[in-house]
Amino acid sequence: MLFVLFVLWAIAAIIWISEPRSPVNRWLGAFSFSGGAGALAAVLDMHWLPQAVKAGASPGMQALLYEMQAVSSLFSYYGIPYFLLMFAVSYSELPIPKKIRLALPALLLLPIILCLLFTPYYNTMYPISYKIVVWWAVPYILASTALVLSKRVPPSLYARTHWILCFAVLPPALFVMFMNYILPTMGMLRMWVYNTWIVGLSSAVFVIGLFTYGFMGMRILIDRRRYDSTLRAVTSGTAMLNHAIKNDVGKLRLFGEKMKRHALATSQEELLKDVEAVLAASRHMEEMIRRVHRKTEDLELKPETCDLTVLLAETMEQLKPAARSASVESSLEEGWMCVVDKDQLAEAFSNLVLNAFEAMEGREGARLRITLESTKRELLIQVADNGPGLSRKQRMNVFEPFYTTKRRGGNFGLGLSYSYHVARKHKGSLYLRSRPGEGAIFTISLPKRAIQAFRQ
User: Fold this and answer.
1) What are the helix (H) ranges across 150-194?
2) What is the pTM of this model?
3) Nearest residue to 423 (alpha-carbon basis) of 441, 440, 442
4) Do the Cβ atoms of 414 and 436 come closer than 8 Å?
5) Which residues contact 164 (CB under 8 A, 6 or more apart)?
6) What distances in angstroms separate CA 280 from CA 244, 274, 288, one per listed residue?
7) Contact by Cβ (8 Å): 220, 424
8) For 121, which DSSP code?
9) Residues 36 and 8 sit within 8 Å (Cβ to Cβ)
10) What is the pLDDT of residues 218-233, one digit of tens each?
11) Domain spans of the chain?
12) How is domain 304-455 classified at the architecture level of CATH?
């Protein structure tokens, strides 16, 4: 049980630290913490209290340990169904009126308060009145399961993390429902000793999910910080490189023009050709470093109110010549007004579309699908192609500056990192879902609150 205690409280800490402002994470962390409180009660009951008695601890110390056991046990029995249901309500994003949503935590606490007031206090044989608690704890857990499973999840963005969440949270919750609430009403007491196995299994799912596809946004958070730090390093590096090369290219051009004038004055045709080649190379160098700097500089947004649907449609119209033989489908929710940097967002969207066209070039039946859809908290811009797709290694590096899978010259591998940077500047992010042979789906998520989105 000591293992269960450390694991559940460690998971709670990770969830809380990863996104402390998210109500979903707060309630899920509290659910994990309440499970750890039950493990603490078991450790006190089976180990620490007997050892304290055996060691001849004072009555006061023994009484303190017993009260810790009682509080931990009650917090676990009453907290598990309550926190799980509050998590499920927040996670499912049910369209609940604001007044009811604000009152819901207090309303769902009523059964717990009544049990604390009108049922016998804790004892080691009967920590709670099982035959009473079971009538609200079991419905809470079953309702939570139904809410989580019924959540509508955009398949391109959260599907994998959603199912990892389901496998990590729901099986142990249902197992605990039988062991801690249902079986004790039939006289089978202390069945909680078997919870260790299911907690260990769900913890393994949590860890595997965290380091593969993510769990409650935590893998995304790790990736965001990695990309953000990389972009900062590249931004400062290209700024210094741009300054240094501009100075040297300026000197090349200055002396090149001087040599050109001398060649013209002395009618040295061969020298004139050589000087022209040097001047052309200097101009090319300057243009290349300017392009790199433009894609990596720290963006300053110039937000203005615009119709996002119109912005995307106009951008697509400009990109039609690049489609060539590819068919383009679009499904854009209309009327979404928001405050964004129109030019930067259009450029980021263009990069995704052009990237998709290049990936499908020469492919029979090439098809691009553009969608704009809304969730409760976000607007999702999706660019989906049926190109060759990306391998796992490519997916892990695709947003890194200067990484490219294209062999064509003149490509710096900055388009996707720039698009990611624009999304982050709008407090959103850019996600990728792809498998070899199944195409790629890029999704720009824009939080409605951050871009002040409203629908006309």
Assistant:
1) 159-176, 183-185
2) 0.58
3) 442
4) no
5) 205, 209, 213, 214, 215
6) 19, 10, 12
7) no
8) P
9) yes
10) 444 445 555 555 555 5
11) 2-216, 223-296, 304-455
12) 2-Layer Sandwich (3.30)
